[in-house]
Amino acid sequence: MNSSYTALEFYPESSRKSIHIGIIPDGGRRWATNHKVSVRESYLRTKQLLAEIVDKLYANGIFEISLYLSSKENFKRPDNEVMAFNSVSIDAISDEIFQIAISRKINVKVAGLKGNLPEKYQAKIEFIEKETCSFENARLNLCIAYNPIEEIQQAFQKADGPDDFINHLWIKNPVDLIVRTGGANLLSNFIPLQSAYARLFFVDKLFNDINWNDFESIIKTYRLLDRKYGT
Q1: Among candidate residues 4, 11, 3, 31, the one with its CA nearest the CA of residue 228
Q2: I want to staple 207 with a disulfide (CB 3.0 to 4.6 A). Which of 25, 34, 153, 154 is the partner?
Q3: Cβ contact 194:166 at 8 Å
Q4: Cα gap 110→144, rounded to integer Å
Q5: Assign residue 165 a region: left if phi > 0, alpha if psi is -120 to 50, beta otherwise?
Q6: CA distances in angstroms from 224 to 59, 171, 206, 227, listed in the order given
Q7: CA proximity to 67, closest of 25, 10, 37
Q8: Are residues 150 and 137 in contact, defined by beta-carbon separation less than 8 angstroms?
Q9: In tens digits, what is the pLDDT along the chain, a chain of 231 residues?
Q10: CA angle centred on 160, ends 175 and 70, rounded to 5°
Q11: Are 203 and 179 in contact (CB under 8 A)?
Q12: Who contacts 107 (Cβ-Cβ below 8 Å, separation ≥6)?
């Protein structure tokens, strides 16, 4: 990549009027402990709540959403947690996410190391991506087994030059704002290249305790901000 290719070129204001929101739904395991339920039950609550919020975000004019469902490192957790996550997220892709995508004509993509996932998981991903590939109303990126280093390495390997690099990222559009629940003020490797100029909103509530009013308030606050790009 040549030195004249600046960060601002990767994240132009241009004519983008739609919003790309990133969501890090943190706090599932703590919520399970607080409510004395299994991790699977907590993930089921997260699945239902995410579906409700995602659907309302699209209904309120959000064009693109990137959900941080799991990092590559999350799959090093205890087997029971990994199995619970896989089971619930497969069901979500087959049910809630698929229904929202079909009804709203949303293009769904998975960003991550798909080959590391169980075959059943890979099959569900392949199906929803194929069924929604022609949709253009909105976009939904599911970060699953995500690792930014692998994303960037792959893009460099496939690109024909600096001008082609961005076309080979798993997620191509810059993020405008990121909402992380659970009280931690860090991004945990969530699409760092795409998030270079994103506004960050950290919410103390665990994700399973959040509601639509929380998101609505954040979006209203964001729309009042003056975007900054380091100049």
Answers
A1: 11
A2: 25
A3: no
A4: 7
A5: alpha
A6: 20, 26, 26, 9
A7: 25
A8: no
A9: 333 333 334 444 433 457 999 999 999 999 999 999 999 999 999 999 999 999 999 999 999 999 999 999 998 899 999 999 999 999 999 999 999 999 999 999 999 999 889 999 999 999 999 999 999 999 999 999 999 999 999 999 999 988 899 999 999 999 999 999 999 999 999 999 999 999 999 999 999 999 999 999 999 999 898 776 655
A10: 35
A11: yes
A12: 101, 132, 133, 134, 135, 136, 138, 139, 140
Beta strands in the chain (DSSP E): 20-24, 64-68, 106-111, 138-143, 177-180, 199-202
Single-letter residue type at 173? N
User: Which CATH fold topology does 18-223 show?
Assistant: Undecaprenyl pyrophosphate synthetase (3.40.1180)
Collect all residues with Cβ–Cβ distance below 8 Å to 50 and sequence separation of at least 6.
Answer: 23, 25, 67, 92, 96
| Gap between the Cα atoms of 222 and 74, Å rounded | 30
